[in-house]
Amino acid sequence: MQNTTTVVVTDANILVNFCHIDYFKHLGSLGKYRLLVPDEVYVEITSKTQKTKVDDAFEAGILEGISIRQIDTLRLFSQLRDIMGKGESACLALAYSSGHHLASDEKRLFRRKALELVGQERILRTEDFIAAGIRAGTFSIAEADFFKQVLAKNKYAMKFSSFSEFVSTV
Known about the structure:
The chain contains ten helices and five strands, in the order E-H-H-E-H-H-E-H-H-E-H-E-H-H-H. It is an alpha/beta fold.
């Protein structure tokens, strides 16, 4: 079986959640994902502590920057900017135009637009990355449940009680 890499355009909320649980080191060991961070998303990371962690992940090659350069992508970005923020618009425009996956925990309008443009199968959330770490044996369900608690304290609540439930359903 061939080991494939999934290219993912990443929104700021995913990066912030990874900072809360110090997930970048785990992500790097998975080797399954190539995370692209649009310029518009990078500037949304304003906490000094989080910026340092994100910068360290760039330096380690875990994250890569990406700029919107193609006319069609710029056009879609501009249209999306009329209804949502810069970072969200950049992620969605880039994922749509490139065919890459999209990583975001946004809900409501963004989620509806993401489902319309890229489809459910190309959308990843924080819990999907954590579940990938469980499946890879990087950490246990108990460690993942600890991550879940930390994220809940930082205003990202997941609708299941334990990763044992989540991993068995996906």
